[in-house]
């Protein structure tokens, strides 16, 4: 009975069109997230690559989308852009293990409504997808560390240089190989 009430409450938040496209190349995570969001009332379609995500978005533009930023065959931002051109009322969020402010800004400019760092659970994803525009997000309990602030700055300059490693290294007065090692690592906490 509680499960039916939860689904009914979810349906109110989701609306009549519950189509959801999840684009994620981590197959176990994709399956868990798809199952969890189906349990909350979404009609889920899954894709494991940018090409597959774009094809599914063109064939049946979803009302909701959860897109990984870095996929084996390219950037999830291409999927976000495709969905936005096909359907301007969609609510999309970007998931990534390589979160930074510059790509978050780009994702929002392309039409994403939120940007979540991995590991994000189904509750966080559901809340981000169903949050209304006037709802405020609570500020983080812990501010960014000095290492994270440095990493964010490097990422911002890297994006400004259109992902040109040599130009970014020159602007940051840093050796190119040092910069490449920093860019290859995950974001510090």
Write a structural description.
It is built from 9 helices and 7 strands; from the N terminus they run αβαβαβββαβαβαααα. Helix 5 (101-110) links the parallel strand 6 (91-96) and strand 7 (112-117). Helix 3 (50-59) runs parallel beside helix 4 (77-86) and helix 7 packs across helix 8 (165-172). The longest helix is centred in the C-terminal third of the chain and has 15 residues, at 146-160. The strands form 2 sheets. Strands 2-1-3-6-7 form a 5-stranded parallel β-sheet, sandwiched between helices. Strands 4-5 form a two-stranded antiparallel sheet. It has 2 domains: 2-130, Rossmann fold, CATH 3.40.50.2300; 146-184, Arc Repressor Mutant, subunit A (Orthogonal Bundle), CATH 1.10.10. With 189 residues, it is an alpha/beta fold. This is ActR/PrrA/RegA family redox response regulator transcription factor. It comes from Rhizobium alvei. The modification 4-aspartylphosphate is found at residue 68. Keywords: DNA-binding, Phosphoprotein, Transcription, Transcription regulation, Two-component regulatory system.
| Biggest sheet layout | 5 strands, parallel
Strand content: 15-25%
User: N-to-C terminal Cα separation, in Å?
Assistant: 40 Å
In order across it, which strands form the biggest sheet?
Answer: 2-1-3-6-7
Number of helices: 9
CATH architecture of the largest domain: 3-Layer(aba) Sandwich
Quantity of strands, as a count? 7
Listing every helix as H and every strand as E from the N terminus to the C terminus, the arrangement reads: HEHEHEEEHEHEHHHH
- Specify the overall morphology: elongated
In terms of structural class, how would the helical and strand content be classed? alpha/beta
CATH topology of the largest domain: Rossmann fold
Which residues sit in consecutive blocks of at least 5 with pLDDT less than 50? 1-8
Given this structure, which CATH class of the largest domain is correct? Alpha Beta
- Could you report the average pLDDT, rounded to the nearest whole number? 82
Domain Response regulatory: 19-133
Pfam families: Response_reg (PF00072)
Protein name: ActR/PrrA/RegA family redox response regulator transcription factor
InterPro entries: ActR_PrrA_rreg, CheY-like_superfamily, Sig_transdc_resp-reg_receiver, WalR-like
């Amino acid at each position: 009975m509680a499960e039916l009430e939860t689904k009914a409450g979810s349906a109110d938040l989701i609306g009549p069109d519950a189509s959801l496209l999840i684009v994620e190349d981590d197959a176990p995570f994709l399956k868990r997230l798809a199952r969890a969001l189906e349990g909350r009332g979404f009609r889920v379609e899954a894709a494991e690559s940018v090409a597959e995500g774009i094809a599914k978005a063109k064939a049946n533009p979803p009302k909701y989308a959860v897109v990984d930023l870095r996929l084996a065959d390219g950037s999830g931002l291409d999927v976000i852009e495709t969905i936005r051109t096909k359907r301007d009322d969609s609510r999309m969020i970007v998931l990534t293990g390589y979160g930074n402010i510059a790509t978050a800004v780009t994702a929002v400019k392309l039409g994403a409504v939120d940007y979540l760092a991995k590991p994000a659970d189904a509750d966080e994803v559901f809340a981000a997808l169903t949050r209304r525009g006037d709802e405020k997000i609570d500020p983080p309990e812990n501010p960014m560390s000095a290492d994270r602030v440095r990493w964010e700055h490097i990422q911002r300059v890297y994006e400004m240089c259109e992902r040109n490693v040599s130009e970014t290294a020159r602007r940051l007065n840093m050796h190119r190989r040092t910069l490449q090692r920093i860019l290859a690592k995950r974001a510090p906490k």
